[in-house]
User: What shape does this take?
Amino acid sequence: MARSSSRYRPRRPTAARAPQRTRLRKNDTVEVITGKDKGKRGRVLSVDPRTGRVLVEGVQMVKRHTRANPTRQIKGGVAERERPIAASNVMLVCSECGPVRIAHRVDEGGGKARRLRVCRKCGAPLDKKG
Ligand SMILES: [Zn+2]
Assistant: This one.
């Protein structure tokens, strides 16, 4: 059923929920795999481990109708903003294979064991640095 109102209804606050482990990090490139923005790609702007949601550039845009408030330099009109999307609805994009699941590899270089995220298909490292 189509949404009858364009008004965004915030979810009930997620009170005292255990933080969720997300495989995603800020500045990851992800592809949306479900929902109205399916197929869209964007950069992760922020990750909220409390709600398990991520903010993705250009995805899940909503229009906010704001009233002008000159004392606080707020312009009126309709502004478009991203809303957080559930991390389970996006997949990290491998530069070779496209959207992939993430595997981990322990790298013991330099005496310190580090957990690296790698592509499950081709094994290429997915972390930009290091
Ligand atoms: Zn790959």
